[in-house]
Write a structure and sequence with these properties.
about 300 residues; alpha/beta; Rossmann fold; GMP Synthetase, Chain A, domain 3; 2 domains; 3-stranded mixed beta sheet; 9 helices; 9 strands; globular; KH_dom_type_2; GTPase_Era-like; small ribosomal subunit rRNA binding; GTP-binding; nucleotide-binding
């Protein structure tokens, strides 16, 4: 049996569908998915098996114009993931087309190491007509010589099998890099924190999703087979703490319940989840917070 294994970096603008595609490829939820931009912070690796090939998906943060230290660290992580990968897949939203953000990414692709293989995946194809898709594909391929172009809907699954089969045939020959049943290389502590952060992001809407972070402080395996997970939600201001807690603690209770239910389903056993909210005014400038998110603090330097 000839085995293959390789790293695939999914890049694109925020909300292009990278996390949805990672989860679809892996067949399980390993990446935070919300309708808010810039929700993926760490380079989450989802591991998928296709025949004798192991595909390791690097779900990078969305590429955008950075303004803050955290933004710069996220963009550096995204381009770092692309530079290190065996194959890069650029996701472009069909209905948005060649935006200024896509133009910047195309310029960045030209600066990747020579010989880096890049495919194009036009996502959300159910939102536009066929002639528009063909015109967009032609326009993008005239700017960059993509090895292959795929028309997909990550959310509905259209075209995803074709992309996965092509990737499986194209990654390098070699031994598998992870156990066959492993679906992500993130520590469970970080996956658990990401799940809680997703619930916060969904619940708080526009109020402060980028001004908070979640860390798993303690993970205790109990004798009865359940797990106790203690997490801290760091916010930047006192006023933010009140928003997270909500009236009589209703918001934090709802977030805790939703996160606990998802963690229980993901782990296949009962979870006791305890959340604390702490104010740390300068958490966006603390190296330790970046390490917990899988980012390099130094990458945030201007």
């Amino acid at each position: 049996m000839t085995t293959r294994a390789g790293f695939i970096a999914l890049i694109g603008e925020p909300n292009a569908g990278k996390s949805t595609l990672t989860n679809r490829m892996v067949g399980a939820k390993v990446s935070i998915v919300t309708h808010k931009v810039q929700t993926t912070r760490a380079r989450i690796r989802g591991v998928a098996m296709e025949g004798d090939s192991q595909l390791i998906f690097v779900d990078t943060p969305g590429l955008f114009q950075p303004r803050r230290r955290l933004d710069r660290a996220m963009v550096a992580a995204a381009w770092g993931g692309a530079a290190d990968a065996d194959i890069v897949v650029l996701l472009v939203e069909a209905h948005r087309g060649k935006t200024p953000g896509v133009d910047r990414i195309l310029e960045g692709l030209a600066e990747l190491p020579r010989g880096r293989r890049v495919a194009l995946a036009i996502n959300k194809i159910d939102r536009v007509k066929a002639e528009e898709l063909l015109a967009l594909s032609q326009e993008l391929n005239e700017i960059h010589a993509f090895e292959k172009t795929f028309m997909i809907s990550a959310e509905r699954g259209y075209g995803v099998d074709d992309l996965r089969e092509w990737l499986a045939a194209e990654v390098p020959e070699g031994p598998w890099l992870y156990p066959e049943d492993q679906i992500a290389d993130l520590p469970m502590r970080m996956i658990a924190a990401e799940m809680t952060r997703e619930k916060l992001t969904l619940r708080l809407h526009q109020e402060l999703p980028y001004q908070l972070t979640v860390e798993t402080e303690h993970w205790t395996e109990r004798e009865d087979g359940t797990a106790r997970i203690d997490q801290v939600i760091y916010v930047a201001r006192d006023g933010h703490k009140g928003i997270v807690l909500g009236h009589k603690g209703e918001t934090i209770k709802a977030i805790s319940k939703a996160a606990r239910e998802e963690l229980t389903e993901f782990l296949g056993r009962k979870v006791h989840l305890f959340l604390q909210v702490k104010v740390r005014e300068n958490w966006l400038e603390e190296a330790e917070r970046y390490s917990e998110m899988g980012l390099d603090f130094k990458d945030g330097n201007s």
